[in-house]
Design a protein that fits this description.
Rossmann fold, 2 domains, 15 helices, 12 strands
Amino acid sequence: MRVESIWRTLQNLLGDDAVTLAVLGDTPKPGVRRQLHEMGIKFFPPKRETRAGKLLRYASATLTGRCLVATRYLSARRIARVVRFVKKLSPDLVILGDVEHAELIEPLKRGTGAKVVCDTHNVWSLLHERVAKNADSFGQRVQHTLLKRNMLGIERRLLKHADAIWTTSDTDAAHYRNVLKLPDVTTVPNVIDVDKFTPNPAGESGAIVFTGFMSYWPNEDAAMRLVEISKRLTGESIAHHLYLVGKGPTPKLESAAKGMSNVTVTGFVPDTRAYQNKASVFVAPLMSGSGTKIKILEALAGAKCVLTTPIGAEGMDVGDAAVVVGEPERFYQELKSLLNDPVRCERVGRAGRAWVERFGSRQALRGVLEKAIGIPSPAELGVVR
C-alpha cells in the first residue's frame, strides 16, 4: 500500500517513464507475477530453501548481524544483480522500500553514484520491543527480543549511510533523530486513495469491526481482547455483533471465538470495505506496533467512528476525529457508550473523513514528496494553481 502510493505519486509528479519499480521478496502467484511484468515492474524472487536451510540462514544472520528477514533474497549474488539492474537505469535517486533493504544502501551508492533514501514503514526495533513486552508466552518474548536486537543493529549500523531517511510519522522521525542520532529524517505520511471509500457513518446498529492480518501478533492480540469484550457485552445484554476481518486467523483466535454467535471471524476476504461499511464502531485496541496504521486511515475515510488506543493512533494527530483511549477498562466503557450513542458516532465519523481528506490523502502525499525530492512548489515558482 505505502510503496504503491509513493510510486504512483512519483509517476504523477515526474512521468511514468521516469520512475521504475523493482520488487524484492517472496515469489507471487503466476497471475500476479505476470501482471507485474505487464506493468513494467522488475521482480527479484528469492531462492527456494528447505526448513534446514532456513534455520541455517537464521543462525548465520544472527551471528553476522544481517537482517533475519531479508537474507533470503539479499545474498551477495542477488545484491550484485540488483546493483547492475539499477546502474543501467542511471538513476538520480534510489528509494529503498524498508529497513530490511538497508544492506543495499552502500552497494547502490558505490555502484550507481545515485542518492539513496531508505523509506521506513516502522521503527522495527521499537515494534519488536513492544511486542516482546506485551506477549503472553515465553517463546514469543524470546523471538521478538531477538528480532529487536537484530533490527536495532541494522538500524544503527546501516541507516547512517543513507542520504535520507523517510518515516511514516513525526513520532518515528523523533525516534530516529533522538535515539539513533540520524540527521536527515523526513516524515512522508502513509496515505490512501480516499476516493475509493464511500462515507457511511451510520453502518449497522451494534456492528463492531476490526480488520487486519490476524496472524500478525499485534492484530491477534487486539482480536483476542475484542473476543473478551464481546463476552462482557453479551453478559450485560448489550446487542452487538463483532466482525474480525482479515486473513490468517490463528487457531488460538478461532478457538476463542468458537461457539460465539455474535462473533464472526471471516478469514481472507477480497475487499475489507464491505465489512468496514457495516461498522457502527470501528475498533483497534492495539497495545503494540509502530508506524501509522492503514486500517485506521481506511476507517476514517469511510466516515466510521474510530475507537482506538494511543498505539493505534500513533503518529496521527487526529484530535476529535477519533476516540483514543489507552486503559482497557475505559476502552470498554467508551465502546458501550458509543454503541448507545449513534449521534456521537456520526459526528466523530464525519470529523474523521474530513481529517483523512486533509492529511491522509494522496494529494497530501504529493506536496510532501515534492519537498522531499527537491521539486519546487508552485508557490516557490510563483505559480498559482
